[in-house]
Amino acid sequence: VIPGARRPDQARSNAAASDLPPLPGELHNRLGRFYEREVARHIRGKY
User: Fold this and answer.
1) Farthest-apart Cα atoms in the chain, separation
2) What is the CA radius of gyration of the chain?
3) In the chain, pLDDT over 70 holds for what percent of residues?
4) Cα(22)–Cα(29) distance, integer angstroms
5) Looking at the predicted structure, is the pLDDT value of residue 39 above 90?
6) How far is CA 6 from CA 1, 3, 20, 43, in A?
7) Is the dihedral of CA 45, 24, 3, 38 positive or negative?
8) Rounded Cα gap, residues 37 and 47, in angstroms
9) CB 29, CB 35: distance < 8 Å
10) In this structure, how many other beta carbons lie within 10 angstroms of the beta carbon of residue 5?
11) Are residues 14 and 5 in contact, defined by beta-carbon separation less than 8 angstroms?
């Protein structure tokens, strides 16, 4: 089950993302900082 996928083509598209190369380390770090600064406070519960 892929959350948010309602149609088979959406599930295939989401699954195809696993074939992409990993994010560069610096981009991954920047996204982590963005999450902590802008997103985390809006998330409920422990994730």
Assistant:
1) 35
2) 14
3) 91
4) 13
5) yes
6) 10, 8, 22, 24
7) positive
8) 16
9) no
10) 14
11) yes
